[in-house]
């Protein structure tokens, strides 16, 4: 019931940050695919772990029974499906140092210079397009007078 309102709130916050000029905006959305929010986020980074490790870590973190942990895991889309739909996958089966190194590499990749398609979808590209249209309209009006 609340998903559309939550999605709208997230979208509005992202829009505000985009307008402010933020170059990287990170969303931590466990139900990204289920809520269909993957359609307007790029790149999609999934932190993946094998099912046994996921179960053990969840039980340890929440101090819960195996049955409760399995129920929580089974209530979500399997990580393997999310991994297949991701642009970038971080493998979280190793140590915390391994995870930190992978996150550093992903941030480096995400901050790289944009290709043309990415540029036109960025704040700078949108502003360039807007300025071009306004200048074109002004020139056209001046020429047609």
Task: Provide structural commentary.
There is one protein chain. The protein has helices spanning 3-20, 51-62, 66-74, 79-85, 96-110, 116-121, 123-144; strands spanning 45-48, 88-91. Helix 2 packs across helix 3. It is mainly alpha-helical. It contains 7 helices and 2 strands. Strands 1-2 form a two-stranded parallel ribbon. The protein folds into 3 domains: 1-41, no CATH class; 42-112, Rossmann fold (3-Layer(aba) Sandwich); 115-144.
The count of strands amounts to: 2
Count of helix runs: 7
Numbering strands along the chain, what is their spatial order in the largest sheet? 1-2
Helix- and strand-based class? mainly alpha
Kindly report the name of the CATH homologous superfamily of the largest domain. P-loop containing nucleotide triphosphate hydrolases
- What portion of residues belong to β-strands? 5-15%
Helical residues, percent: 55-70%
Q: What do the pLDDT scores average to?
A: 87
Under the CATH scheme, which class of the largest domain? Alpha Beta
Order of helices and strands: HEHHHEHHH
Tell me what the CATH architecture of the largest domain is: 3-Layer(aba) Sandwich
Our measurement of the CA-to-CA distance between the termini, rounded to an integer number of angstroms, reads 55 Å
Q: Which term fits the overall shape?
A: elongated
In total, the number of domains comes to 3
The CATH topology name of the largest domain reads Rossmann fold
Rg from Cα: 21 Å
Enumerate the spans where pLDDT stays under 50 for 5 or more consecutive residues.
none
How can the largest sheet be summarized?
2 strands, parallel
Pathway: Cofactor biosynthesis; coenzyme A biosynthesis
Pfam families: CoaE (PF01121)
Protein name: Dephospho-CoA kinase
GO molecular function: ATP binding; dephospho-CoA kinase activity
